[in-house]
Amino acid sequence: MEDHIRRGLELLERLYLERNYDSFLGRLTGVEPEVAGNILRKAYVLHDVGKCLEVFQKRRAKFGFHWFYSYLVARTTLGRFGETGEIASVAILLHHHDWILRKSPPKPENSKLCKGCLHLLENITMEKLSREIPWVEPQAAYSEAESVFRKNTRAVYAFLLPIVLADNYAAACNRDGAGSMLGKEILETLEVRGWDLAGCLPSRL
User: CB–CB of 133/117 below 8 Å?
Assistant: First the structure.
């Protein structure tokens, strides 16, 4: 997880924040650029916090609905940033899926989060995280998220795009270029431009 986070953060920095993306986010959300940039970093670090559920870590099970569990943690953690924190949290909710779900995310039998994961994420974000999933019924959670989304659609997508790109980039790096189609396209685009951001472009591309 740490390597995935570090590689994704490097893409955020070099492809977005070093090119004044924080100013763009700040204009959309009405906060200072430095604050907007920090919220983007924290949101990226937290986008997979749902995978820290003990049931996932102990059983090495598939991370089903982890984006929803991540959203529940993020909305609590980033809530201190007001509406901008809410916007970033909704971007986390959407980083793998849209609003259409075939089944509702179940409440974990064990809602506790792995201590090792929490320690890592807290050290990177410098935020105190919930020790367990702060459960909210999916219908209520999605209703709240939809309200934020409808009011701030452009800002949600402004957070969502770099989070998704950084996530797929990091996954492709960690899998030696064998990640998702989006991850492969990102690596190919970076190679064409000559940007080997994290030193992970496969020579075979």
Answer: no
Tokens matching residue 139: 């219908």
Q: pLDDT by residue (tens digit) across 61-78?
A: 576 889 999 999 999 999
Distance, CA of 29 to CA of 164 (rounded, Å) = 19
Cβ neighbours of residue 136 under 8 Å, at least 6 residues apart? 72, 144
Q: Are the beta carbons of 201 and 187 closer than 8 angstroms?
A: yes
Q: Which residue has the tokens 């019924």?
A: 137
Q: Which amino acid type is present at position 33? A: P
The per-residue pLDDT for range 7-38, each reduced to its tens digit, is: 899 989 988 999 999 999 999 999 999 999 99
| Cα first-last separation, the chain | 25
Strands, DSSP E only, in 31-187?
none
Give the residue carrying structure tokens 């190919």.
188
Exposure string over 92-123, b if 16+ CB within 10 A, otherwise e: bbbbbeeeeeeeebeebeebebbeebbebbee
Choose among 149, 153, 166, 126: nearest CA to 21. Answer: 166
